[in-house]
Amino acid sequence: MHTEDWPATIEEALAVQDRLRGRVELADDCPELPPTVTGLDVAYDDTGGIAAAVVTLETTGLTVVEERTHRAKAIFPYEPGLFAFRELPPLLAALERLEHPPDVLVCDGHGLAHPRRFGLACHLGVLTGLPAFGVGKTRFIGSHGTPAHERGSSEPLVDAGEEVGAVLRTQDGVKPVYVSAGHRIGLAHACRLTLALTPRYRLPETTRHADRLSRAALR
Fold first, then answer.
1. Is 176 exposed, middle or buried (0-12, 13-18, 19+ CB in 10 A)?
2. What is the dihedral of CA 75, 106, 18, 71, to 10 degrees?
3. Up-side HSE of residue 213: CA atoms within 13 Å toward CB?
4. What does each C-alpha distance from 134 to 11, 77, 109, 149, 183 come to in angstroms?
5. How confident is the model at residue 197 (pLDDT cuts 50, 70, 90)?
6. Over the stretch 147-191, which tens digit does the pLDDT of each residue have?
7. Which of 25, 128, 136, 200 has the fewest CB atoms lying closer than 10 Å?
8. Are residues 191 and 133 in contact, defined by beta-carbon separation less than 8 angstroms?
């Protein structure tokens, strides 16, 4: 989908989500430990400007392999559940600038843990064809129990009787994150990769790097 074909209204965006949702592949065909992981994040300024950042890390050492940014104006209104339509155009542009194709995409947001089961990670995965999952800082939908104190503990995130994600403790006693599958990767696999990406801090290193890079790109 090209930017010139991008939905301009909420009704059009909802129709796109309905059309693309059926293309989500829930079968897990992502390597258990892919060679690289690519994190994505965006930052906004006060004038409607948006900076997207993508950062590829080696999975084992978590060293930066490549990073790219793209600045643009937001072309879709602020609407809960439709953030992808603001963030995807610059994110896709930044991804296109990478010299090395990503192995898996880690989104600062949600995948299936979305009211229409089509969050940013699903949308990005479908459009790129790449394995993708989301690691959200906060809960968007659903209910859950409290994970145990220890790192690696988790509880199901349930919405309308369906398990849509996991509430995962990435560090002992630290507030958990919300992991959900997006495309071509299972939830358990996404949780294992999230733990591999959080050796010291609550958030994945992919998100931490992409967050810093997107903020710097606005300055």
1. buried
2. 10
3. 23
4. 25, 22, 5, 22, 10
5. very high
6. 999 999 999 999 999 999 999 999 999 999 999 999 999 999 999
7. 200
8. no
Residues found in the chain: 219
> What value does the mean pLDDT of the chain take?
92
Give the start-end residues of each E strand in 1-117. 36-44, 49-58, 64-73, 105-107
Please give the single-letter amino acid code of residue 81: G
The H-or-E segment that residue 164 falls in is strand 162-168
Query: What confidence tier does 5 reach under pLDDT thresholds 50, 70, 90?
Result: low
For 202-214, how does the pLDDT look when each residue is reduced to its tens digit (9 = 90+)?
Answer: 999 999 999 999 9
**Paired tokens of 149:** 């104190």
Residues forming beta bridges with residue 136, ordered by sequence position? 178
3 state DSSP class of 199: coil
